[in-house]
Amino acid sequence: MKLGIEGKLALVTGGATGIGKAIALELAREGVRVVVTSRSSERIDAAVTELNHVGSGHGGIVSSITDLGAPTQVVTEVHQQYGSIDIVVNNVGDTLGILDPLCTLDDWARLFRLIMGVAIEINNAVIPSMRERRWGRIVNITAGAGMENSGPVPYSSLKAAFTAYSRSLGRVLALENTGIVMSAVLPGVVLTEEGHWSEVLKTRPEHAEKYLQDRTVLRRFGKPEEISPMVALLCSELASFCIGSIVPVEGGQARHFFQKVDDS
């Protein structure tokens, strides 16, 4: 399948590990030049080396991307060093260990900054240039937890808001006839090298096994490489009709379609 994005430039936040790196590699295999971000220069170097085994012209930017002004600075650096951004994958996100449903407003603010604030700032910075060129793809990586009662309250709530933002702004951009397509991919439980479930497998393997048996259809974790093809498709020329599309890629785990589920 020809995705029609060879030679495009993509920014993938949190693209040096996990789902982000799988997405970066998927895009690189389609001939896209990819710039990834990470807080770690070592991870950047390793990811860029891996990307350059696929193609050329890739790069990375070391950034504590939740810092004040950091997302805008990343976009500026990409423009200066690599050119205009055609594709954005807003991938960074975490619970930050904020599990208390009655956590402080400061905790809510910190989590908002990571899950939504960074993406909003990046999108605001790239959309004017995409408008001028009348082409762009923005894919927001939200979560299946944003569509049902699953996971910590603050995390699930903000992922739900991020999903709604993707749908709403995607429609606005289409109505303005910008040529920009915004969409969202909602992963389920995916095992990454330093993610939540890797830690659970080390410290509470019985909990992980119970979760897989009770809450998933396939009785296993997803792999980053099972998320990345859908993201690449939504980044492509073929995604022109995917206005505000919300695409779960979660192995059939979610139950939000049903009023009541009886697994007995």
Averaged pLDDT, please? 94
Which strand order does the major sheet show?
3-2-1-4-5-6-7
Beta strand count: 7
- Percent strand equals 5-15%
Number of domains: 1
Helical stretch tally? 8
Percent helix, as a range, is: 40-55%
Q: What is the level 1 CATH name?
A: Alpha Beta
Structural class given helices, strands, pairing?
alpha/beta
| Shape field | globular
Task: Extract low-pLDDT stretches.
Answer: none
CATH topology, what is it called? Rossmann fold
Query: For the record, what is the CATH homologous superfamily label?
Result: NAD(P)-binding Rossmann-like Domain
- Which sheet architecture does the biggest sheet show? 7 strands, parallel
SSE series: EHEHEHEHEHEHHHE
CA-CA gap between termini: 42 Å
| Second-tier CATH architecture | 3-Layer(aba) Sandwich
> Radius of gyration from the CA trace?
18 Å
Strand-helix topology:
Blueprint: E1 9-12, H1 18-29, E2 33-38, H2 41-54, E3 59-62, H3 70-81, E4 87-90, H4 105-133, E5 136-141, H5 153-175, E6 180-187, H6 196-203, H7 205-215, H8 224-234, E7 246-249
Parallel strand pairs: 1-2, 1-4, 2-3, 4-5, 5-6, 6-7
Helix pairs in contact: 1-2, 1-8, 3-4, 4-5, 6-7
Walkthrough of the structure:
The chain is of the alpha/beta class and 264 residues long. The chain has one domain: 3-Layer(aba) Sandwich (Rossmann fold), CATH 3.40.50.720. It has helices at residues 18-29, 41-54, 70-81, 105-133, 153-175, 196-203, 205-215, 224-234; strands at 9-12, 33-38, 59-62, 87-90, 136-141, 180-187, 246-249. It has a 7-stranded parallel sheet, with helices on both faces. α1 packs parallel to α2 and α3 packs parallel to α4. The longest helix has 29 residues, at 105-133. It is globular and about 50 Å long. The model has no long low-confidence stretch (mean pLDDT 94).
